[in-house]
């Protein structure tokens, strides 16, 4: 339809070598070294503390039972003591809260954590981030088919390659769940304790949730959901590659149907995984907007990664059909969904802050303590202010350097967001961004880059027989 | 603010090329623009992608309008909330501060509301679709159905009329007309055949 520049559609083959390979491998190696140093540091710091924590825990348990019973007898007194407690500035960090004789109603009754929980938790968090980014890549592909959208066809192979790595994240999550689930998730710990109603330490909230929050259910979802996603991803990929060689509309039409089914299933299953993996870290707390908020985090990060890979490929002379117009649209996508993320973030925060119900507010109370307060504000700056202000103008959305900067900010920001979801609930007293966190993240970056670029190099970069390729090549967002 | 040349009735003579095929239309518009002819506007029943570039339109100031309207909405919301909740009759609800983050939803909604209404207004104004629009803008009844129309001012033509006619017919125009404006809403349209002497 358009004119002005000639378009030459041909297959491109990416070779993964040289700088990119060295970069990903060195990230991996340096990350591993830092991780090992971090583990030793955590061991040295933690081996002394955990003994101390154990002692504290014993004294705490007595208070807690007393507090609970007292509250059951007189609910009004509970409310009074709660407001009283607010004035006395006690520390709400997990078990420290219990030091005070006055007990807020559903106090997160935590158990002491050994030093290695921090290591496993980092693995869990990065594995979950990997899973989110990767499966959102798959969602990106499915979305283009279902929406009958043509603009992204020239860069469709990038999210397609990203969608191959989530089984790694899923396996890591499962591994961590088996090895250290008891220390990370309080409900697993509680389940193993087998406390009956009326016995000391009985927790009504966890008991009510136990139909969903139990090991069988969690393992079932952690195994089945990624398996179903993987089957869909495999089918979509194989159809796309067969289309390259065989052509015709059959594969395209079939892909639309498979994508629609995938999106339908994805909506429910990602929600369930976000409850099982992330929200249940704070097992007493819940938020109804949490799953979509998790999706927003993954989706924005996924768009940032797609943009970074496309810019990298373009700089190295690949993806010749990708023009400023496509880059501009990716920028718009990131801009829009950063606001979407902020909207959900604020929706979750504002209602809890305004209603100020203790069992809900405790979640944010914890995140308003140092050292998490820094992360809390970094969240707003990196995930909202930077993309909102920088990506507002058209020129910035078309400028690769500015986009790269914003993408990196978004990735750091959403990593930070996940950090705030996991750490304050699971290891409030040990959490600190140090060598372990940085090293582990670098390792994951190395694995991700190596895996995705290898996947990209295995097949052509262009879906040459895709019916919308021509349309995508002529994509024009106007003046 | 608005280029008077953009109005059909502010030029003495205007030439219309009426097309059936959007691809041919787009090509011809591009060629005519490159020749240096003064294109007033293009009327199409559906959006033709790439027409802005072909016509040589400058970037729209609509985003600036959006920003200004958004700021107006933000300030309006902030000032009414400040006046009602802080200045005139301070109300403490749930022990929350009378000013602060709880203002956020209203600030957001008012910004969006003002932006949406403002942009709709600007859009109607700029595309001459407000009440009291100039009837002569409708060049051909079929421009809202299946015909694409280009209007070219021929008063101080950089390109001669005969050359323009040839370009339009060569590009695939099914009809070419010339309009002479005598007075406001008073004009005569003459159909031009290929090769006729003008």
Written overview of the protein:
- The complex is a heterodimer of chains A (479) and B (198).
- Chain A is mainly α and 479 residues long.
- Helices cover 72% and strands 0% of the residues of chain A.
- The longest helix of chain A has 56 residues, at 18-73.
- Residues 50-109 of chain A have low confidence and may be disordered.
- With 198 residues, chain B is α+β, with helices and mostly antiparallel strands.
- Chain B has two domains: 4-58 and 134-192, no CATH class; 62-126, no CATH class.
- A five-stranded antiparallel beta sheet of chain B has the order 2-3-1-4-5, with helices on one face.
- In chain B, strand 4 and strand 5 form a beta hairpin.
- In chain B, helix 1 packs antiparallel against helix 5 (161-171).
- Chain B is elongated, with a radius of gyration of 24 Å.
- Chain A binds chain B through residues 1-4, 346, 350, 353-356, 394, 474, 476, 478-479, and chain B through 22-23, 26-27, 30, 49-50, 52-54, 57-60, 63, 94-96, 101-102, 104-105.
Give a brief description.
Chain A is an all-alpha fold and 479 residues long.
């Amino acid at each position: 339809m358009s004119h002005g520049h000639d378009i030459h559609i041909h297959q491109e083959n990416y070779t993964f070598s040289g700088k990119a390979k060295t970069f990903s491998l060195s990230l991996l190696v340096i990350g591993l070294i830092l991780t090992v140093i971090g583990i030793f540091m955590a061991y040295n710091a933690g081996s002394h503390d955990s003994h101390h924590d154990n002692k504290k825990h014993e004294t705490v348990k007595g208070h807690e039972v007393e507090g609970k019973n007292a509250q059951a007898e007189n609910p009004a007194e509970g409310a009074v003591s709660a407001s009283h407690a607010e004035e006395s500035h006690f520390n709400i960090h997990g078990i420290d809260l219990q030091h005070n004789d006055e007990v807020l109603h559903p106090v997160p009754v935590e158990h002491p954590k050994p030093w290695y929980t921090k290591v496993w938790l980092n693995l869990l968090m990065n594995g979950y981030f990997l899973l989110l980014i990767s499966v959102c890549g798959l969602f990106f592909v499915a979305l283009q088919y279902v929406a009958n959208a043509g603009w992204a066809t020239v860069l469709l192979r990038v999210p397609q390659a990203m969608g191959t790595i989530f089984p790694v994240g899923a396996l890591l999550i499962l591994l961590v769940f088996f090895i250290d689930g008891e220390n990370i998730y309080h409900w697993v710990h509680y389940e193993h304790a087998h406390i009956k109603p009326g016995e000391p330490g009985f927790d009504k909230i966890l008991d009510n949730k136990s139909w969903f929050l139990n090991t069988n259910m969690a393992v079932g979802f952690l195994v089945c959901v990624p398996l179903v996603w993987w089957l869909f991803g495999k089918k979509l990929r194989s159809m796309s590659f067969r289309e390259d060689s065989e052509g015709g509309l059959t594969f395209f039409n079939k892909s639309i149907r498979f994508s629609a089914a995938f999106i339908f299933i994805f909506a429910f299953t990602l929600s369930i995984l976000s409850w099982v993996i992330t929200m249940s870290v704070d097992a007493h707390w819940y938020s109804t907007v949490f799953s979509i908020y998790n999706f927003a985090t993954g989706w924005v990060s996924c768009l940032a990664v797609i943009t970074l890979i496309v810019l990298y490929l373009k700089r190295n002379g690949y993806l010749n059909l990708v023009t400023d117009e496509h880059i501009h649209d990716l920028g718009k996508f990131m801009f829009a969904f950063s606001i979407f993320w902020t909207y959900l973030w604020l929706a979750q925060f504002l209602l809890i802050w305004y209603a100020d119900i203790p069992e809900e507010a405790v979640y944010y109370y914890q995140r308003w303590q140092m050292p998490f307060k820094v992360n809390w504000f970094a969240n707003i700056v990196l995930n909202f202010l930077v993309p909102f202000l920088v990506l507002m103008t058209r020129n910035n959305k078309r400028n690769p350097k500015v986009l790269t900067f914003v993408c990196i900010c978004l990735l750091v920001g959403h990593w930070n967001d996940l950090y705030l979801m996991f750490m304050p609930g699971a290891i409030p007293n040990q959490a600190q961004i140090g060598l372990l966190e940085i090293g582990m993240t670098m390792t994951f970056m190395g694995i991700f880059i190596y895996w995705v670029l290898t996947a990209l190099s295995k097949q052509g970069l262009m879906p040459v027989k895709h019916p919308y390729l021509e349309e995508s090549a002529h994509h024009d967002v106007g003046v | 603010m608005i280029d008077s040349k953009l109005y059909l009735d502010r030029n003495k003579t205007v030439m219309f090329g009426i097309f059936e095929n959007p691809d041919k239309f787009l090509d011809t518009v591009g060629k005519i623009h490159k020749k240096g002819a003064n294109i007033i506007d293009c009327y199409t029943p559906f959006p033709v992608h790439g027409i802005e570039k072909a016509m040589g339109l400058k970037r729209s100031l609509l985003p600036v309008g959006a920003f200004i309207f958004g700021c107006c909405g933000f300030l309006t919301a902030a000032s009414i909330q400040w006046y009602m909740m802080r200045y005139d009759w301070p109300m403490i609800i749930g022990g929350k501060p009378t000013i602060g983050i709880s203002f956020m939803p209203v600030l957001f909604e008012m910004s969006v509301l003002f932006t949406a209404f403002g942009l709709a207004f600007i859009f109607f104004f700029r595309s001459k679709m407000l009440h009291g629009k100039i009837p002569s803008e409708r060049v051909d009844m079929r421009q809202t159905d299946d015909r694409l129309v280009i209007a070219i001012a021929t008063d101080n033509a950089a390109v001669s009329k005969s050359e323009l006619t040839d370009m339009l017919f060569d590009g695939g125009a099914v009809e070419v007309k010339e309009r002479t404006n005598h007075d406001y809403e008073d004009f005569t349209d003459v159909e031009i055949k290929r090769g006729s002497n003008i």
